[in-house]
């Protein structure tokens, strides 16, 4: 299992890249409505806040399982956000 610091970096990088991808889409599609793309950004920020809160939670019994579950949730929610970006075009 990677360290807590690495998990926080992964969360930051994955969701940051998703937000950047939305901004690139908006830049390339200036003629399209941005309500859906802005909703994806809001969801990515919300996901970031939730996952960081879970990482910082101190009242867990099995830390290894807890962090593994957070990593899995990051992967699942990241994929869902990417699918939403792909449906924008």
Brief description of this entry?
The protein has helices at 4-28, 35-56, 63-88.
Low-confidence stretches: none
Biggest pleated-sheet summary:
none
> Which structural class best describes the helix and strand composition?
mainly alpha
Count of helical regions: 3
Q: Give the helix level as a range of percent.
A: over 70%
Rg over CA atoms: 15 Å
- Quaternary assembly: single chain
| Count of individual beta strands | 0
Please give the alpha-carbon distance between the first and last residues. Answer: 37 Å
Give the overall form.
elongated
Strand content: under 5%
Order of helices and strands: HHH
- Could you report the average pLDDT, rounded to the nearest whole number? 94
Give me the secondary-structure topology:
Layout: H1 4-28, H2 35-56, H3 63-88
Helix pairs in contact: 1-2, 1-3, 2-3
Question: What can you tell me about this protein's structure?
Answer:
There is one protein chain. This protein has three helices and no strands. By secondary structure, the chain is mainly α. Helix 1 runs antiparallel to helix 2, helix 1 (4-28) runs parallel beside helix 3 and helix 2 (35-56) runs antiparallel to helix 3 (63-88). It has helices at 4-28, 35-56, 63-88. The radius of gyration is 15 Å and the shape is elongated. 16% of the residues are buried.
